[in-house]
Amino acid sequence: MDDKIDRRQFLGRCAQAAGSVSIIGLLLGTYSEQSKSLPAWAIRPPGAIDENEFLGACVRCGLCVRDCPYDTLSLAEFGDEVATGTPYFVARNIPCEMCEDIPCAAACPTDALSKELKNIDDADMGVAVLTGVDTCYSTTGVAHCRACYLACPIKDEAITMEKTESNGRWYFEPTVHSEKCTGCGKCEKDCVTHEASIKVLPRNLVRHDLSAI
Amino acid sequence: MPANFKRNWFLRQRYLIFRRLAQFSLLALFLTGPWYGYWILKGNLASSIFLDLIVFTDPYIYLQSISGGHQMGTVASIGAATILVFYMVIGGRAYCSWVCPINVVTDAAFWLRTRLGLNLSWQPKKNIRYWLLIMTLVVSALTSSIAWEVVNPITMLQRGLVFGMGIAWAIVLAVFLFDLIVSRRGWCSHLCPVGAFYGLVGKFSLIRVSAIKRQACTDCGDCFRVCPEPQVITLPLLGEENGASPIVISGDCTNCGRCIDVCDENVFHFATRFEDKLKADAGA
């Protein structure tokens, strides 16, 4: 470089560079914050740490996707509603089969899927909620359906069929016990109504803390 | 450019051919798994596992994650260290010219720009990429995310090819058009913070290009025309009178070997950064 500049010009150029880079930084930062929103239908793999920290931990390598034996997981593609490159599944398509050895979490090199999850029954991907009380065959009395109850891998604990009476009519209501539910989505997958009457939702939408009732 | 070359066609293109082979075969190693069920490299450039045995993690992504406040797992830490050592040996920005898939895109844009005779160019300052590098770390820290991965065209393209593209073609096309129309070698040689990161690694790396036979230089300018970072050649090639070493020591050099390809006088070759000292010792 042979262009000699004085201090004034030097400082001016530095300010200019810092300014333009800051503008790009602001755009990147806001875009990055914006893309953090996770739609309720997208469920993170078992062991996923808190969503706010997850995006700083997941390097989007897809090793969890590769090691899922049921092809449950996908990496979000650019343009999807889920942050690009991060893993998720849609319970109604392929739910989590709750492998005992949790291969997806074992494959994670960055601990975005925590190794602290030892027992898959302790997974907390979300909570199932009977969203379609007025469409569920059992609650409406269309049929003695208990597909969700039969699908549930935490049998007789996460979902029970509770005998309920309403206006003199007796029926069995699928009842989710949120402290046991792992959010695997098998109930949502097996629900026989056109649109699932029971759905897995993110836990923070349903209930934060059972001890704080 | 001389009309009749002293060397055959292969010698004039060999490193370009080797680089394309490296770039495409690396991609192929990632694709044999999903396409045919033979898992050689699983994952993508962000992090991968070789034959279910050796883990690789991109150290720049690793660094952003750390800035974001995440405690990376042991596996990723080992993987990042492995990659770092690897590029310390083969040259930091060898990543850019031998591995990065966007390099194929921007080289294509450069080729077309030359072919079409597009001369207009907006050239950002070369060091803006280091500012951008710092910026990505700051934004990662402020948003506790891996900021550059939200837009990084390299991983977008590579992950897209291996896992599914979505509309990531748009970003790749944007980089192509930027280099074609807006800025000559704008992306890789001026802006990309990934290249900046590997450039810093390259400041200490072992394998370097050396203008060992610079006395044979005929001042034809071929090397300057093909080099993506021509400023790195000036001193080693022309600075003999000022006592400059013939070794291209700048981290900006991508070890692409195009100068070796095009020089009919065989001025350049690949050497280690210590070649000069070794020679001096031998002479003494």
Can you walk through the features of this model?
The complex is a heterodimer of chains A (213) and B (284). Chain A is α+β, with helices and mostly antiparallel strands. Chain A is 30% helix and 13% strand. Chain A has helices at residues 7-34, 51-57, 63-67, 103-107, 137-140, 147-151, 186-190, 203-206, and strands at residues 74-75, 87-88, 127-130, 159-166, 169-176, 198-201. In chain A, the strands form 3 sheets. Chain A has a two-stranded antiparallel ribbon. A two-stranded antiparallel sheet of chain A has the order 3-6. Helices cover 56% and strands 7% of the residues of chain B. The model of chain B has no long low-confidence stretch (mean pLDDT 91). The interface between A and B is large, with 44 and 58 residues.
Helix content of chain B: 55-70%
Fraction of residues in helix of chain A: 25-40%
Number of strands of chain B: 5
Element order of chain B: H for helix, E for strand: HEEEHHHHHHHHHEHHHEH
Strand residues, percent of chain B: 5-15%
Q: How many distinct folded domains of chain A? A: 2
Q: Which chain pair has the greatest contact?
A: A-B, 44 and 58 residues
Terminal CA distance of chain B reads 39 Å
State the low-pLDDT regions of chain A, or none. Answer: none
Please outline the helices and strands.
The complex is a heterodimer of chains A (213) and B (284).
Chain A: H1 7-34, H2 51-57, H3 63-67, E1 74-75, E2 87-88, H4 103-107, E3 127-130, H5 137-140, H6 147-151, E4 159-166, E5 169-176, H7 186-190, E6 198-201, H8 203-206
Antiparallel strand pairs in A: 1-2, 3-6, 4-5
Chain B: H1 9-36, E1 41-44, E2 47-50, E3 54-57, H2 59-67, H3 74-90, H4 94-99, H5 102-116, H6 128-143, H7 153-163, H8 169-182, H9 186-191, H10 193-202, E4 207-210, H11 222-226, H12 231-238, H13 258-262, E5 269-272, H14 275-283
Antiparallel strand pairs in B: 1-2, 2-3, 4-5
Helix pairs in contact in B: 1-7, 2-6, 5-8, 6-10, 7-8
